[in-house]
Amino acid sequence: MEISTVKDAFDHVAKRQKLSSSKSQEVVDQVGYEIEQALTKIKAINDPVSPIDLKSILAELELKLNAIGPLHRLEGLQKERNINLSKYAKLLEKSFNPDISKAYRNVDFDFHIVNQIVASHFYQQGLFDLGDCLINEAGEPEAIAIRSHFLEMYQILEALKVKNLEPALNWIIANREKLNQNGSTLELKLHRLQFVEIIQKGTKADALSYARTHLAPFASLHTNEFQKLVVCIIWVGKLDRCPHAELMSPTHWEEFTEEITQQFCSLVGLSYQSPLSVAIAAGVEGLPTLLKLANVMAAKRQEWQAMKQLPVPVELGKEFQFHSVFVCPVSRDQGSEENPPMLMPCLHVLCKQSIMKLSKSSSRTFKCPYCPTEASAAQCRQLYF
What we know:
By secondary structure, the chain is mainly alpha-helical. It has 4 domains: 3-95; 115-267, no CATH class; 276-306, no CATH class; 323-385, Zinc/RING finger domain, C3HC4 (zinc finger) (Herpes Virus-1). It is 61% helix and 4% strand. The protein has helices at 3-43, 51-68, 70-95, 111-124, 128-138, 144-161, 166-174, 176-181, 186-201, 204-215, 223-234, 251-267, 275-299, 352-359, and strands spanning 341-343, 349-351, 365-367, 374-376, 381-382. The strands form 2 sheets. Strands 2-1-5 form a 3-stranded antiparallel β-sheet. Helix 1 packs antiparallel against helix 2 (51-68). The longest helix is centred in the N-terminal third of the chain and has 41 residues, at 3-43. It is flat and about 115 Å long. The chain starts with a helix and ends with a strand. The mean pLDDT is 85. It comes from Durio zibethinus. Keywords: Cytoplasm, Metal-binding, Zinc, Zinc-finger.
């Protein structure tokens, strides 16, 4: 079922809920109004001990409340709300099958690698005690080497939270050559953050001294950035009117924290995103297709677990595409070392096995399936992705 159908159903329930709430409030207001009117009449009685007037007022109030029928109306509104919510819950259950085990395929996992991936995830999230516990219980002592890398990274990140740049600076200086090879400007960004802190809390003299010592070395390669920072010195004490006020934005700290995390992971050969979280996110995105496939195969009494290749593509976002993959347009097989993609003279590409089937032998010519050009297997060249 399309997500738009679920959204329309939700909008309908929300609309009915709002209308029901409005009607309920109207009933309560009517009851309150009649009670207030009765109280006003009681207070206006000249003889406060006269039972006749008091009884007549209460009797009139009772008649009006019976005419309103608050309990009956409120119960009806509550029943209507429950019916609408019950229908929506059934729609959700029908649309989103909670039994995700249908999409599970029996896979022989290498538990040694799985343990390392999970432990690495815990360390990358800063959950060092949990990672240590897993390593000890799973008997994976070699995975402890990953811990030291992330521990150093979190010491830097914790210092950045209190705007302490010294640990970050020490790490950048120690890895300056590698960072420069990556085209990183982390050192300049770090000094920019420190300079902005000085012009916000210090004096013009302090800012000028810092600029001469730490920013001047970057002036030749980052002239525009350097000029903006130096201009800010003039506006010390009135930075709200500075033409480069965007440099004071706290988002620069967030961006620096994210970039230093990326560079740190890159230099130690680790993924910026946890492989476990990426695998789970990709699985969640592909789950609807897999569940639908499992249901269709079950209806046809076919076992999809035994299939070597899925009969339908599982579309994932670009964030999950880490390398190029070629799928032969003829056989629908994915290219591999045994069956590599081959470029034909007409510049169309097929997998090697498809070409061999079309040519029937390496010397026989065949027509390209997509154009009338003839070619032979010997004329085709392997492509490398």
